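Researcher: Can you fold this with nicotinamide-adenine-dinucleotide in place?
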Amino acid sequence: MALQIGIIGTGWFSKVHADILSNMDGVQVAAFVGTSQEKAARAVQGYASAKAYSNTEQMLDETKPDAVYICVPPFAHGEIESQLVQRGIPFLVEKPLGTNLATPRQILHGVKKAGLMTSAGYHFRYTDAAMKAAEMLESRKIGMALGYWMGDMPQVYWWRQQEGSGGQFIEQTTHMVDLLRCLLGEVDEVYAAFAHRAMKDIHEGVTVHDVGTVTLKLKSGAVATISNTCMLPESDMVGLAIYTEQGVIDIQPDKLIVKEKGRLTEIRNAANPYLRENEAFIHGLRTGDASGILSTYEDAVKTMEVTYAALRSAESGVPVKVGE
Ligand SMILES: NC(=O)c1ccc[n+]([C@@H]2O[C@H](COP(=O)([O-])OP(=O)(O)OC[C@H]3O[C@@H](n4cnc5c(N)ncnc54)[C@H](O)[C@@H]3O)[C@@H](O)[C@H]2O)c1
């Protein structure tokens, strides 16, 4: 019998996952849950075996999925995960885990108690660029890193509201923070400056900051800064450049750029990281071997601790210890 997967959320990213899943052997997209029956009914089109629901509990009762994908905006997390924990259903959750730390910490407690298999959507970890960088860094002394997510403002309504998304650093730049943790180790302290420069005057209802820069002290002694803006008319650049005694290793969404010994080498990603992320989770469900899952719920909480500490630092104007 094919693995039955329930998907919560009917937006852009639910479809990205559903398309990958429905092309896998032995996997069936069994259901979509939307905020209305109409939205769910639209989402199931094109997935022959999928049923539409407007209620998670009903979907879980009737479909009895082997696992659930949670692809909802940051503000909508908590209740869904709690239900899955109570029923012992493994899940893959899109980043970020929420808009604050309290809910993810509470969920984590339940996940650990239930011994649930989880995966978090930090797909950068699955890129060839990040994997090659990890390999190279084993024989180099890391000094520092510069991360950046310089772009435009996503058009979905919840993104521009602080209580909807948590702001750019929590919602989007979290990918760079996660990559930093993955490649350079844990963060001890952050100091952040965020500001409102243009977007509040350009769009109605904007409460998120549109520029920000964060200084991070790592437990290893290395330092980093990660900056972001969402005030540009179009996307500019995204990446994490790592500085070592041998040169620069720059991870970008589609490639790795290495500048060492006076030479510049570009290595383009060959594999699709989202496919790898899905394959690792599905393999885990089938075999019980979760070793291919590169970001679990527990690990993603640690990334949330850093991004949330940055928000608290920006609000208070003082450095904040991570995890406090
Ligand atoms: N890993 C990545 O590269 C990546 C890329 C894009 C989006 N994402 C993440 O995926 C999540 C969703 O993003 P999106 O672009 O699909 O947003 P979206 O706004 O297009 O879709 C979100 C969907 O969730 C539904 N929803 C909201 N609350 C719900 C609830 N309680 N129950 C069921 N459905 C609910 C909405 O109706 C909507 O259909 C975000 O957290 C985003 O950060 C990750």
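Model: Folded with nicotinamide-adenine-dinucleotide in place. Residues 8-14, 33-35, 39, 71-74, 76, 94-95, 121, 123, 156, 171 surround nicotinamide-adenine-dinucleotide (CB under 6 Å).
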